[in-house]
Amino acid sequence: MLKQPTYRVIGALVLICGVQNTRAQLAGDIDGDCKVDSADVAPFIATLLDPDGHPATLDAADVDDNGVADGRDVAGFVSQLVNMAVCGACQTQQSGFAGGSGTPGDPWQICNAAQLQLAGDFLNADFILTSDIDLAGVSFTPIGFTTFGDSIIHYDGTFDGAGHRVRNLSIQQQDTDVIGLFGKIGPNAVVQDLGVENVNLSGNRCVGGFAAENDGLVRRCYVTGTVAGTSFVGGMVGDNRNLMEDCYAQANTSGSNSIGGFAGVSFTGPTYARCYSTGAVSGNNSVGGFVGGVLGPHTVTSCYWDTQTSGQATSGGGTAKTTSQMHQQATFVGWNFATTWTIETGDYPRLRWE
User: Fold this and answer.
1) Each residue's pLDDT tens digit, 73-93
2) Are strands 237-240 and 217-219 parallel, antiparallel or unpaired?
3) Closest by Cα among 324, 287, 293 to 309
4) What are the start-end ranges of the H helices in the chain?
């Protein structure tokens, strides 16, 4: 319950006394965009003049953090404004995210697990990670979660990992379809520059360490961990239907039908460019080191899998290489080792942003 404010008038400025804060927010960032700029001036004044009319912004207006929003905050606000303060530590703004507005030029900022899960409620919005995220112990629902075979529900915005990682995602639902960090990535979606580390996934149909199904563009991403399911199971993606480029999977993958180290199944003409996989792969039917099942034509350009670590000598696409060959830059024909990839002696290629 907010305390009733009292007023003292000094000149033209009304000072608000005894107004309690309501939520944590960057001091001075009244509009919740994770920075203090000229757009905050009017709402700051409005909050001081009418606190009951602006309860959600009281905490941001309490710049000196003394528990009330009043005239003593003016000097601090001006200082924040002059210095163009921005969010430092992970914070939650009025939107539920750490900043931004969800548009292409101003994506919503994600800096913790709760904000990452909230992204699943805004399937057409744009997002950017501002820090690594640990999902250990979190009951997580895939972003773009849907039923198997659904053509309507999917994530269809731009999701920029910005060189950050999501770690320790665990979903153990053996009877559930469409399991991954992303459920279904839609045809207009772009997901880029994101690492997904130490996944532990178990589902039924369409399971992928990074995404259950991809209908969009995934680039410069990777996954590590363990992925299991019944059919259409891949270290990176369960079912690929569009473009995946400059990605890799180092995930052990197991199941029954259409099991692949990178993709469980290729469907409706997808393309893979400059990708590789190294994880152990096991299954019964349509099992491949890189791609498991192939349902129609697909394009695989300069993609490779490790025959020794995967335990698979064949694949629905890609080129077989030994571990020693996978540690040599010369193996990866047409790859950009100047700006996209790097490789060190005794290791597989890594993305330069890692």
Assistant:
1) 898 888 878 776 666 678 888
2) unpaired
3) 324
4) 41-49, 58-61, 74-83, 113-118, 307-310, 323-326
63: which residues sit within 8 A by CB, 6+ positions away?
Answer: 27, 28, 73, 76, 77, 80
Contact 108, 97 (CB under 8 A): yes
Query: Class of 6-83 per CATH?
Result: mainly alpha
pLDDT tens for 134-179 read 999 999 999 999 999 898 999 999 999 999 999 999 999 999 999 9
Look up tokens 């080129």; give the residue.
319
Tokens of 61: 């207006």
Domain range list for the chain: 6-83, 132-351
**Which H helix or E strand runs over 321?**
strand 319-321
Q: What's the token pair of residue 301?
A: 């350009």
- Taking domain 132-351, whether its CATH number is 2.30.30.40 is answered by no
pLDDT band at residue 23 under the 50/70/90 scheme: very low
Map residue 340 onto helix, strand or coil: coil
Two domains, one topology: 6-83 and 132-351 = no
DSSP letter string, 190-209: EEEEEEEEEEEEE-SEEEES
pLDDT tens for each residue of 304-340: 999 999 999 999 999 999 999 999 999 999 999 999 9
pTM for the predicted model, two decimal places:
0.78
Neighbours of 53 (CB within 10 A): 9
Gap between the Cα atoms of 250 and 26, Å rounded: 39
Say how far residue 40 (Cα) sits from the centre of its chain.
29
* CA dihedral sign of residues 10, 12, 18, 20: negative
Which residue from 81, 103, 90, 153 is spatially nearest to 123, judged by alpha carbons? 153
